[in-house]
Amino acid sequence: MSIKIALVGNPNSGKTTLFNSLTGANQYVGNWPGVTVEKKEGKIKKNKDVILTDLPGIYSLSPYSMEEVVARSYLVDERPDAIINIIDGTNLERNLYLTTQILEMNIPTVIAINMMDIVEKRGDKIDIEALSAELGCEVIEVSALRGKGTDAIADAAISAASGAKTSHPLSFSRDIEVALSKISAIALAGMDEAKKRFYAVKLFERDEKIIAQLSLSKEKLASIESLIASIEKNYGDDSVAVLTNERYEYITDVAKKTCKKKSVALTVTDKIDRIVTNRFLALPIFVFVMWFVYFISIGSIGDWTVGFMNDTLFGEWIVPAVSAGLENIGCAEWLVSLIADGIVGGVGAVLGFVPQMLILFLLLALLEDCGYMSRVAFIMDRVFRKLGLSGKSFIPLLIGTGCSVPGIMASRTIEQERDRRMTVMTTSFIPCGAKMPIVSMIAGALFGGSAWIATSAYFVGIGAVIVSGLILKKTKPFEGKPAPFVMELPSYHLPVATNILRTTWERGWSFIKRAGTVILAASVIIWVLNSLSFEGGLHYITEDRAGASILEIIGTGIAFLFRPLGFGSWQAAVATVLGLVVKEEVVGVFGSLSSMADADLALELVGSADSAGFAIIGLEFFGGSRLSGFSFLVFNLLCAPCFAAMGAIRREMNNAKWTAFAISYMCVFAYAVSLMIYQLGMLFTGNGNVVGSIFAFITLAVFVFMIVRPDKLVKSNKKDALLDA
Length: 725
Ligand code: GDP
Ligand code: MG
What we know:
Layout: E1 3-9, H1 15-23, E2 40-44, E3 47-54, H2 66-78, E4 82-88, H3 92-103, E5 109-114, H4 116-122, E6 125-126, H5 128-135, E7 139-141, H6 150-162, H7 174-187, H8 193-204, H9 208-214, H10 218-235, H11 239-258, E8 259-260, H12 268-276, H13 282-299, H14 301-328, H15 333-351, H16 354-370, H17 372-386, H18 394-400, H19 404-410, H20 417-426, H21 436-446, H22 451-473, H23 497-516, H24 518-531, E9 532-533, E10 539-540, H25 550-562, H26 570-579, H27 584-596, H28 599-606, H29 612-622, H30 626-638, H31 643-653, H32 656-684, H33 690-708, H34 712-724
Parallel strand pairs: 1-3, 1-4, 4-5, 5-7
Antiparallel strand pairs: 2-3, 6-8, 9-10
Helix pairs in contact: 3-11, 5-11, 7-8, 7-10, 13-14, 13-16, 13-22, 14-15, 14-16, 15-24, 15-27, 16-23, 18-19, 19-31, 20-32, 21-22, 21-29, 21-30, 22-30, 24-27, 25-26, 26-27, 28-29, 30-32, 31-32, 32-33
């Protein structure tokens, strides 16, 4: 028999940190299908019979948000054997609100007061024994981050699970308690004794989900209603507010008895935040931080690793060695080309970016772990809210910087359907890890590896999200005020190596796995299509490349679509289309094709075989035009994401029409933006094309109109407000 233990607590109280520390490398991550927000399950390292569940962070057990619904129905329906209620010790009072509700579930509960390292550093004191006596359950000091007290809390939870329960919920005022027991008698006869308290309280709060679940008769509901009404009359407040008030009175009392705060001096975190979240400095600092991340990961060290991987490791060592080896053992010429150019060229081009990717992921994980990314969400929330968008949408975007799929899934935490849909539609505008090789390739091929290209790609993504928000908010399906969004800013702390390495590796490994599977397969297909020609009967095109390959014919057939955007070469067209399957394949296609291109061409173009790959890509596929390259980059950044992300969009939308709309929207948006960039760019550099410029100006005008047109909704809202007043 295994024991089930659930981790419950406010957002940012340290649940996931504790979860990872207790389950360690043995954790498996399960995504539950359906409407749930992700919850994780894992076995405890030291005791494999214990299954720990990391529930989404919540402030209460009311079903207001998706997280609350998920966490609550887990507790109610699955009834874990024990609960670890994790509390942020620096914010005892706010966290205890949830605790008072958890104790009503009558599930054996132990309390972990987390962040004790910070509490101690601040010189605050928490009287653990008094707190334990007040709440009637075991309380243990923990620092999940430093691994202190973590084993003790696990042991406590395990023995609580097997022992008789000892915790007792708070008692409300006498008349309320009387009403609760009457409700219990009316509606809950026959129910498990332990469950009654929770249900009675929820019925008292007129919780619709619980009322529906119990399917009570009209008469019973009416007599419950009269009980509630008489209490409401006595207290002059609605029943939920009455209970909330009593809970807070109780909490204030408990906190006064058990917690001694030192005088409130400015902490280091406060001091840093004064600068980092400063009204005027915040955005420039964010831009600089992102620039620095890209400067390291793509510009300097990263650039060197890509150069080494592509030119030296693959270009000079592996490919020639593989070719020579295969030729020596007498392989047919086509097989040598398939393996050396097609597979090693294509997969190698993608693998070449792995070190760079790892550096990028490492830096992002650092920013996340030390607490800076939470500030970014906070800063962007300010910006978003000014524009009438929901700040909560920014969290999926931050997560999407690694991979759009979890980013899109993170949108589940947004309560309002329309905001959630909008976030699902726009999350993949942010350059994910797999898009970075495209950025890096274009930067290397045409911009001398400048880190500003990546930085601008990132902010083009954010810009696209904001512009889309402004446009969509004024259309019928998306109108409405954004929901308020409260966010906790964790204290800054030194990053913990294991956390960062784990995240980095998880993200990097999925990148490598794709290189070995999808990209490998795609590379073979590309090679086959580029080695066969229909002209004069189906045949293999040898070195002289007489006749156009099938790939070239297909590419040429669709290239006209992209000519107005400035990248009309058939190679760029093929790369773009394949990018819809896997984004890395954009780079893979260029890798295979440049490796199959005439080697003499490289020498002719750059005079040396060194860094020939990038040079061929820049000169042959984009005509050496930076504008074409940038337009290509932006299009690939904003257009429909890869298959995996489209799948995630479909799952989250749970509706074919919405999915189709989302994907078409992204493609049209990308096309419009690239068109403007290229055509207006050409115009300003004196190479404008009349028709192209006209279309670009029309597109621009449409955009401006869509953004600034008066918002009918705001007006009608104002009218309502007036009427109400
Ligand atoms: P969750 O939202 O409850 O899952 O919280 P997380 O586990 O993601 O933690 C939120 C933040 O608090 C992260 O930045 C953690 O590194 C940090 N954190 C967690 N536990 C501790 C702790 O014991 N001490 C300190 N100083 N920070 C912690
Ligand atoms: Mg978490």
